[in-house]
Amino acid sequence: MDGIKKWLTISLMVSLAAIIIILIFSDTNLEETIGSLKSIRPEYLLIAVGIRVSTWFLWGTRIKVMSNVAGRKLSFPKSMKIVLCGTFAAGITPSYIGGTPVRIYLLNKEGLSIGDAALVDLVGRSLDGIVIGMVFPFAWFAFRDEIAPNVVLSSTFTILGVLFSTGFIVGAYGMIYPEKVKKLLKRLSTSKLIHKITFDTSETITNRIIVEIDNFRDGLFRFVKEEKKSLFVVLFCTVAFWLLLFIMPSFVLLGLDADPIWISSMLVQVILMIAVMLPIAPGGSGIAEIGAASLYATVLPKGDLPIIVAFVLLWRFAMYYTNLIAGGIVGLKVLKDIDLTSLREN
Q1: 154 with 185: CB under 8 angstroms?
Q2: Which pLDDT score, from 0 to 100, does residue 40 have?
Q3: Which of 11, 94, 286, 304 could form a disulfide with 279 if both were Cys (CB 3.0 to 4.6 A apart)?
């Protein structure tokens, strides 16, 4: 519990600091921001929050369908609990890294093996990566003039692109040549350094990893070959999930009587989704606010710039803090008692 409070506090403090920085360095003053917040049309803010809620249902559907394929009939309420607990854990950890182990843990508690639980989560996240990867080049091309002069930003996105590509290649290699990966793992498990790090349990750990590699690979091929209908549903949910998230900011802009800039806003969102993966602060706090203010300032009409801080606050509330609120209500007790060492092989 103390760890959760610590990361949550850090996230809120970094977000607050980022908003103060935006106020100082933008042409917007506090009075204008408060005025914009008061004048928001509530129906559009409700639409934005409703979009965020809809994405939970899409993600829950995706988990339910893939769990069924893995051989475990999961009820929709349970899949929703897994989604909300996962998004909460992701939102209070750097790079959103906490979401995946929590979802795997909860799926394992529902009776899936570690390999099947990983399959359910990682197939979904892989599809997310494919969608983002397909759209990212267009976003990069659209904003290359704004990003390229900034050496730090340009280098960061280049590194992220290399890491993404490397991870994809290594993962694909492991699926095609699993025996070579197993041999490499066995060779590493015999090294003195690995023995010291794992307190002489490296062989046991390696054998368990090998079993789960086989489970994951078998489940993935079963999913692709035998469950085409389920694959279509999962693909639909994934595309709909990201499309809704990409158009959400435009409804916030409409609520502030600003130009919704639909296409430009969607491209900005793609870049921000990559940027918040940087392991700087929990839930991408700071990066999300400053990145949104900087990029939207380049695409919004000049007359709409006074609402930029109010827009960032409302968008971040609909996009991020609704996750924390709903996830905290549903999953705080679950996360407090979580014990990742209790994962079962089944």
Answers
A1: no
A2: 95
A3: 94
